[in-house]
Write a structure and sequence with these properties.
The protein has 11 helices and 17 strands. The strands form 4 sheets. Strands 3, 4, 5, 8, 9, 16 and 17 form a 7-stranded mixed β-sheet that branches. Strands 12-11-10-13-14-15 form a 6-stranded parallel β-sheet, with helices on both faces. Strands 1-2 form a two-stranded antiparallel ribbon. The model has no long low-confidence stretch (mean pLDDT 94).
C-alpha cells in the first residue's frame, strides 16, 4: 500500500506492506485523517521525542524506529474492510473512528499508539489495523472531514473538563490552531462568560472571531495583559497553553491571575525554560495534559454529530496522499488551520 513515511526528519510517499488484522482487530481503508500539530512537531523533533519516550517505562512513543520508518496519522476515519477473529461484529463498509491505539493481542492491557509506532502504521496510508473494542461507528450524516476532527475535539474536551471552569470565570486561550479553537468551542459550550484568544496569524484570528471568541488579540501588538484585564475585569484565572513552542508556558504563567490554573495542552517537544518564582509568587497550578478517555472520544463524536460542537470552519483545506508532505511543510507557516487528508 502507499503511505507517507517519516525516516529521520524526511517525509516521503512510499510503498509499504499492507497490515493484517489479528484477534479483535479489523483491517480498515483510510477515508480521512487530520494533520495534527503533534505530528508536525514530531516530524521536526523526532529524535528528541524518541529519546524522551525511551527514558520512560512501557510501550509508547519509544516504538518509533526512525531508521525503519514510521507512518504517522491518528485523527482517522476509516472503512472496515476485513474483521479479524472476534471482531466480526464490525461489518465491511462500516465507517469508524475511535481511540487511536492498537491493543496488543499477546499482552492484555498493553496499547500501542497508532501513528507513533513502527509496528503499526498510522492513517497517513491507505490501510490501518484498528482494535475493535476502541472503535466508534461514524453516523451516516457526518462527513469524513468532520469525523476526522473527533480526536482533537476529544483533546480539547479533556482539557476543559480537567480545568473545571466555573461559569463566572473568564479564560485565555493561547493559540488559535485546531486545539485552541476547539478549546474555545468547548468553553463557550459550557457557558464561560468571556474567552480571549491570542494568535499571531491573521487567518486564524479571523476563525477565532467567527467561532465566538469574546476578544481576539495579536500577541505581538500591544499589551495583552492590560487588554484582557480591561475587557474581562482582571487577569484570567484560567489559561490554556495551546501553542507548544518554547516560551509559551512562561507567557501563560505571566498572564495568569494569582492562584490561577495553567492548562498545558500544547505539545512542546524540546526543552523549555520557565521562571519558577513566577509560579511561586502567584501560587499557580500548572496542569500538564495528555489525551482523553474513551468516553470523551465518544462524547466528542456525539457533540459533532448532534451539532453541539461545529468544527467545520476549522477544516480549511483537504489534500490527497501525494500532497501530504507539502501540506506538512506549509503548516509551518500557518495560513491554514486544520488540513485533512482525504482518500476516496
Amino acid at each position: 500500500m502507499r503511505a507517507m513515511v517519516l525516516r529521520g526528519t524526511r517525509l516521503a510517499i512510499e510503498e509499504v506492506e499492507r497490515p493484517r488484522p489479528g484477534p479483535m482487530q479489523v483491517l480498515a481503508r483510510v477515508r480521512a485523517c487530520g494533520i495534527c500539530g503533534s505530528d508536525l512537531h514530531a516530524a521536526r523533533y523526532a529524535q528528541d521525542l524518541v529519546r524522551a519516550a525511551r527514558a520512560g517505562d512501557g510501550p509508547g512513543w519509544n516504538e518509533m524506529d526512525l531508521d525503519q520508518g514510521v507512518v504517522m496519522g491518528h485523527e482517522f476515519v476509516a472503512e472496515v474492510v476485513e474483521p479479524g477473529p472476534g471482531a466480526e461484529g464490525w461489518a465491511p463498509g462500516t465507517r469508524v473512528t475511535g481511540v487511536p491505539a492498537v491493543l496488543d493481542p499477546a499482552s492484555p492491557g498493553v496499547m500501542h499508539p497508532l501513528g507513533y509506532s513502527s509496528r503499526y502504521p498510522g492513517a497517513y496510508g491507505e490501510y490501518v489495523v484498528l482494535s475493535a473494542p476502541l472503535l466508534l461507528r461514524v453516523p451516516d450524516h457526518v462527513p469524513d472531514r468532520l469525523a476526522a476532527t473527533t480526536e482533537p475535539c476529544a483533546v480539547a474536551l479533556h482539557a476543559v473538563r480537567e480545568a473545571k471552569p466555573a461559569p463566572e470565570e473568564h479564560a485565555l486561550v493561547l493559540g488559535a490552531g485546531p486545539i485552541g479553537l476547539l478549546t474555545l468551542l468547548w468553553l463557550k459550550h459550557q457557558g464561560i462568560r468571556h474567552v480571549t484568544v491570542t494568535e499571531p496569524a491573521a487567518p486564524r484570528r479571523a476563525l477565532a472571531e467567527r467561532l465566538g471568541a469574546d476578544l481576539v488579540l495579536d500577541p505581538a501588538a500591544g499589551d495583552v495583559a492590560a487588554r484582557v484585564a480591561a475587557a474581562a475585569g482582571g487577569p484570567p484565572p484560567l489559561v490554556f497553553e495551546c501553542v507548544g513552542v518554547p516560551g509559551a508556558l512562561q507567557q501563560a504563567m505571566d498572564l495568569a491571575a494569582g492562584r490561577g490554573r495553567v492548562m498545558v495542552v500544547g505539545a512542546c517537544m524540546t526543552e523549555d525554560r520557565i521562571t519558577p518564582m513566577t509560579g511561586i509568587r502567584k501560587h499557580l497550578t500548572l496542569r500538564f495534559l495528555l489525551g482523553y478517555s474513551p468516553e470523551e472520544v465518544a462524547e466528542a463524536l456525539a457533540a459533532i454529530a448532534g451539532g453541539a460542537i461545529d468544527p467545520a470552519p476549522l477544516v480549511t483545506r483537504t489534500v490527497g496522499l501525494d500532497g501530504l508532505p507539502e501540506a506538512f511543510h506549509a503548516l509551518g507557516n500557518p495560513q491554514d488551520c486544520k488540513v485533512v487528508l482525504e482518500l476516496t
